[in-house]
Specification:
alpha+beta; two-stranded antiparallel sheet; two-stranded antiparallel ribbon; 2 helices; 21% strand
Length: 66
Amino acid sequence: MKLQISTEACQGHGRCYDLAPDLFGEDDEGYGQVRRDGIVPPESEREARLAAANCPERAIELLEES
């Protein structure tokens, strides 16, 4: 699984990096950023889904690898 954040949609609420700090960080202005090029380790998929579900702007996209 891979994730990405839409910089146009993100409003800087910080829920992503509060819920999944290993997957998300924040930039200098408080907007969410993905860590590790957005690659989600299998053991962190639950946290990635939780962060995406809790984003008020739905700025997080989960990309399923096939």
